[in-house]
């Protein structure tokens, strides 16, 4: 029998794009798996790389060809905003050809909707501010509550005029752009690395060189490195100083180029976890295990620590599961916090408790992720201790329940991992995976995981 339920949160369906899946499907029942899961899974490009590449290509001089883009809600809203700005993009499957505007947006006014995409909400305002025009920027209900003020304060200091449409310094807002002055800026980076990435991407279009100092301890600094790498691909090379805390960005215009994007390592992690949980073997091609800079590559070290075998190649990663997963350790999630939920879902099946720390900022992601995963694990009768910056999950066998992903793709994908090893777990609102992996449940099914979409009462 399912445990007693609390009411489900209603998702913000306006943020689901034409690329989303499972509209109106209330539940999905996943698992249990009858045997080890073995297979090869080819995933599309990283969300982080896709939205960086699309936006930088739009600002560049000349045409860019971006191969292997992700087609999901987050990239849809990025492309939608670019179309409204007058950028010509042609899409052929997973290849985008983009005619860059060289820094002056062809349509200098209008309304731009960023959906629930943190990458678009934090990168686009900076890139708009580097041009000339007046735009209204709106986003999903949750995105309107997520932190944005530190970036907007710096953009105002550099020349933009920002008017907030609601109380507080967030979306929706009107941004009047007159180009960015150069000079120096101090950017608080402890709530999100995306502020720094956004400002960096726009900085070379300032009138003078801009030096940006990161204030406080930067969360997930690896994403700033991804930004610097992508800027380099388009010909702009900031210089680091002060042990990486300050970046000097020269003036200059991005040059259009051709790029093939690496698959999304954050999404790979769910499939690696599937191998770990079932004692199976999952291979993900086209990841360079020695050179990939995607922060969630750190998951592989933890899977090894849990007893899995990881094969690393120049063009693949393969994870082989363990007979019994090992626990009894603490991990700092400061550098790769998107996988906090994945580890919390693996933890009940380990032989000792697992403590996840240094992730207070994920309370401001797609939902309050620490509170949400604790509440859903408790519905499954798994013992958890919640702390301000993380949680401890104790070993246990999940009981049947209906669980709520809180309109968060990573909650849904992580809850599906718990369901793989238990009877009778249903997940509400399966379509929320569309933010980064619209065909997630179909991919599980292709690998042999029982997946059934159901409606109430079935
Ligand atoms: O720059 C990026 O592409 C991202 C940065 C991180 O966000 P925060 O630094 O806001 O935590 C990460 O969680 C997100 O999924 C992607
Ligand atoms: C935090 C995430 O996304 P966003 O880019 O919206 O911040 C995420 O994908 O886990």
UniProtKB/TrEMBL annotation:
<comment type="function">
    <text>Catalyzes the transfer of the enolpyruvyl moiety of phosphoenolpyruvate (PEP) to the 5-hydroxyl of shikimate-3-phosphate (S3P) to produce enolpyruvyl shikimate-3-phosphate and inorganic phosphate.</text>
</comment>
<feature type="binding site">
    <location>
        <position position="47"/>
    </location>
    <ligand>
        <name>3-phosphoshikimate</name>
    </ligand>
</feature>
<feature type="binding site">
    <location>
        <position position="435"/>
    </location>
    <ligand>
        <name>phosphoenolpyruvate</name>
    </ligand>
</feature>
<feature type="binding site">
    <location>
        <position position="52"/>
    </location>
    <ligand>
        <name>3-phosphoshikimate</name>
    </ligand>
</feature>
<feature type="binding site">
    <location>
        <position position="47"/>
    </location>
    <ligand>
        <name>phosphoenolpyruvate</name>
    </ligand>
</feature>
<comment type="pathway">
    <text>Metabolic intermediate biosynthesis; chorismate biosynthesis; chorismate from D-erythrose 4-phosphate and phosphoenolpyruvate: step 6/7.</text>
</comment>
<dbReference type="GO" id="GO:0003866">
    <property type="term" value="F:3-phosphoshikimate 1-carboxyvinyltransferase activity"/>
</dbReference>
<feature type="binding site">
    <location>
        <position position="118"/>
    </location>
    <ligand>
        <name>phosphoenolpyruvate</name>
    </ligand>
</feature>
<feature type="binding site">
    <location>
        <position position="369"/>
    </location>
    <ligand>
        <name>phosphoenolpyruvate</name>
    </ligand>
</feature>
<feature type="binding site">
    <location>
        <position position="193"/>
    </location>
    <ligand>
        <name>3-phosphoshikimate</name>
    </ligand>
</feature>
<dbReference type="Pfam" id="PF00275">
    <property type="entry name" value="EPSP_synthase"/>
</dbReference>
<feature type="active site" description="Proton acceptor">
    <location>
        <position position="338"/>
    </location>
</feature>
<feature type="binding site">
    <location>
        <position position="192"/>
    </location>
    <ligand>
        <name>3-phosphoshikimate</name>
    </ligand>
</feature>
<dbReference type="InterPro" id="IPR036968">
    <property type="entry name" value="Enolpyruvate_Tfrase_sf"/>
</dbReference>
<feature type="binding site">
    <location>
        <position position="410"/>
    </location>
    <ligand>
        <name>phosphoenolpyruvate</name>
    </ligand>
</feature>
<feature type="binding site">
    <location>
        <position position="146"/>
    </location>
    <ligand>
        <name>phosphoenolpyruvate</name>
    </ligand>
</feature>
<dbReference type="InterPro" id="IPR006264">
    <property type="entry name" value="EPSP_synthase"/>
</dbReference>
<feature type="domain" description="Enolpyruvate transferase">
    <location>
        <begin position="35"/>
        <end position="444"/>
    </location>
</feature>
<keyword id="KW-0028">Amino-acid biosynthesis</keyword>
<comment type="subunit">
    <text>Monomer.</text>
</comment>
<keyword id="KW-0963">Cytoplasm</keyword>
<keyword id="KW-0057">Aromatic amino acid biosynthesis</keyword>
<feature type="binding site">
    <location>
        <position position="365"/>
    </location>
    <ligand>
        <name>3-phosphoshikimate</name>
    </ligand>
</feature>
<comment type="similarity">
    <text>Belongs to the EPSP synthase family.</text>
</comment>
<feature type="binding site">
    <location>
        <position position="194"/>
    </location>
    <ligand>
        <name>3-phosphoshikimate</name>
    </ligand>
</feature>
<dbReference type="InterPro" id="IPR013792">
    <property type="entry name" value="RNA3'P_cycl/enolpyr_Trfase_a/b"/>
</dbReference>
<keyword id="KW-0808">Transferase</keyword>
<dbReference type="InterPro" id="IPR001986">
    <property type="entry name" value="Enolpyruvate_Tfrase_dom"/>
</dbReference>
<protein>
    <recommendedName>
        <fullName>3-phosphoshikimate 1-carboxyvinyltransferase</fullName>
        <ecNumber>2.5.1.19</ecNumber>
    </recommendedName>
</protein>
<feature type="binding site">
    <location>
        <position position="338"/>
    </location>
    <ligand>
        <name>3-phosphoshikimate</name>
    </ligand>
</feature>
<feature type="binding site">
    <location>
        <position position="194"/>
    </location>
    <ligand>
        <name>phosphoenolpyruvate</name>
    </ligand>
</feature>
<feature type="binding site">
    <location>
        <position position="48"/>
    </location>
    <ligand>
        <name>3-phosphoshikimate</name>
    </ligand>
</feature>
């Amino acid at each position: 029998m399912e445990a007693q339920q609390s009411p489900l949160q209603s998702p913000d369906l306006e943020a689901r794009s034409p690329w989303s899946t499972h509209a109106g499907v209330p539940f999905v029942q996943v698992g249990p798996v009858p045997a080890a899961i073995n297979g090869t899974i080819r995933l599309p490009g990283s969300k982080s790389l896709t939205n960086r590449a699309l936006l930088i290509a739009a600002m560049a001089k000349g045409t860019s060809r971006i191969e292997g883009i992700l087609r999901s809600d987050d990239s849809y809203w990025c492309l939608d905003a670019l179309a409204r700005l007058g950028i010509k993009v042609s899409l052929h499957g997973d290849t985008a050809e983009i005619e860059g505007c060289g820094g002056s947006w062809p349509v200098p006014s209008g309304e731009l909707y960023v959906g629930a995409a943190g990458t678009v909400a934090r990168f686009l305002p900076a890139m708009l501010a580097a041009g000339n025009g007046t735009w209204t920027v709106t986003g999903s209900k949750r995105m309107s509550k997520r932190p944005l003020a530190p970036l907007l304060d710096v953009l105002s200091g550099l020349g933009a005029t920002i008017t907030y449409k609601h109380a507080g310094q967030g979306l929706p807002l009107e941004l009047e752009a007159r180009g960015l002055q150069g000079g120096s800026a101090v950017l608080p980076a402890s709530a999100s690395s995306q502020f720094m990435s956004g400002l960096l991407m726009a900085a070379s279009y300032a009138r003078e060189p801009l030096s940006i100092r990161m204030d406080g301890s930067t969360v997930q600094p690896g994403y700033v490195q991804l930004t610097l790498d992508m800027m380099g691909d388009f010909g702009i090379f900031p210089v680091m100083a002060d042990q990486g805390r300050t970046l000097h960005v020269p003036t200059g215009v991005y040059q259009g180029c051709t790029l093939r994007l690496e698959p999304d390592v954050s999404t790979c992690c769910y499939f690696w976890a599937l191998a770990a949980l079932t004692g199976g073997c999952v291979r993900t091609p086209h990841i360079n295990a020695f050179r990939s800079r995607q922060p969630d590559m750190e998951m592989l070290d933890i899977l090894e620590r849990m007893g899995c075998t990881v094969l690393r190649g120049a063009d693949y990663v393969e994870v082989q599961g363990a007979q019994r997963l090992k626990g009894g350790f603490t991990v700092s999630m400061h550098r790769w916090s998107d996988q906090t939920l994945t580890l919390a879902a693996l933890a009940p099946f380990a032989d000792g408790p697992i403590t996840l720390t240094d992730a207070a900022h994920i309370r401001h992601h797609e939902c309050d992720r620490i509170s949400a995963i604790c509440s859903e694990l408790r519905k499954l009768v798994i013992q958890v201790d919640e702390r301000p910056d993380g949680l401890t999950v104790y070993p246990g066998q999940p009981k049947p329940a209906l669980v709520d992903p809180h309109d968060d793709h990573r909650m849904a994908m992580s809850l599906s991992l718990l369901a793989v090893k238990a009877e009778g777990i249903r997940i509400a609102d399966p379509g929320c995976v569309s933010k980064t992996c619209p065909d997630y449940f179909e991919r599980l099914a292709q690998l042999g995981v029982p997946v059934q979409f159901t409606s109430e009462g079935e």
